[in-house]
Amino acid sequence: MTNDYMRILHITAGSDAGGIxxxxxxxxxxxxxxxxxxxIAGQPGPWHxxxxxxxxxxxxxxxxxxxxxxxxxxxxxxxxxxxxxxxLIHTHYRKATLVARRLQKNINVPxxxxxxxxxxxxxxxxxxxxxxxxxxxxxxxxxxxxLIEDARIPTQRISxxxxxxxxxxxxVPTAAERQAARATFSLTEDNLVALYLGxxxxxxxxxxxxxxAAMSKDSLPGLxxxxxxxxxxxxSIRQQLDRQGLEDRVWMxxxxxxxxxxxxxxxxxxxxxxxxxxxxxAEAMCAGVPVLRTRxxxxxxxxxxxxxxxxxPIDRQAFxxxxxxxxxxxxxxxxxxxxxxxxxxxDFTFNRQLxxxxxxxxxxxxxxxGRPA
Length: 373
Known about the structure:
The protein is about 40% helix and about 15% strand. It is α/β, with parallel strands linked by helices. It folds into two domains: about 170 residues, Glycogen Phosphorylase B (Rossmann fold, 3-Layer(aba) Sandwich); about 180 residues, Rossmann fold (3-Layer(aba) Sandwich). β9, α9 and β10 form a beta-alpha-beta unit. The C terminus is likely disordered.
């Protein structure tokens, strides 16, 4: 351990399924390996087993609670910090920043807030409950612009650092690997495979994929929509499939490891109403899978229109019409997939994200504060 190591406390909602947990786990693993000290505070969630085995502490605190829960979380973390001082508090949830402000009354350290999902409510009571920290990290240019234009955060208090992909985990498959992956799911080369990876919950609009399967029976007879994920909307999606007799065109796979699915897919579809950077999109592109997504935060970061994928307004009919057009040209999908993989490997690597994040941490912390003599 060198004298220039940093000690970071992350405060999040919980170890929930999704991109925030992925971001935290990968970042903390890399920081710990580089000799820094990290800890995470929040409530246990569906992905807590991943964090339970990690070599850093998880401090259980009711960050999702109401005022009494937040006061309790503040007490728990204040006691922790008395024995384990830090150089910076990194928050990932609006309530987490409110807790961090209470802690800041006793410890003079900066608060960094990562905006994982932009275009969040700011009016009414949210005006008083929203705190973007002393500095705000945005993972996409659209999110940065929203912070400036809507949240009125000064430009100098924002750092734009896109998320990155461990590219070695998502290689472009060889022809043999693609054939083997498709065989695993009983798919043939005649099938056109559209993939959805993500939670089955609002605001993902995953039911639009069922609508796509229904409307394209004649135009895309070989289409198979693979839906990998779980969530509160799973029952209603299954009921919709049963009512419309679409079980042969839309396959509900539950939570799965993404790589075999990406190796089998021709394209990925993401019709979200609200979305951040989207690890799922970046990982699909890394594996050579082009993406069609609605124009949410992160879209401009990843999609070069017609080159690495396509984007559409957040409109059901526009999405369905564009999806049919997008999926109808397999040679264009293959060409976009190659360009997508090149773009991720050039501009969106995890090593780049880590380097820029450590540089941001360094700028925000005062040299020597809280470090051993």
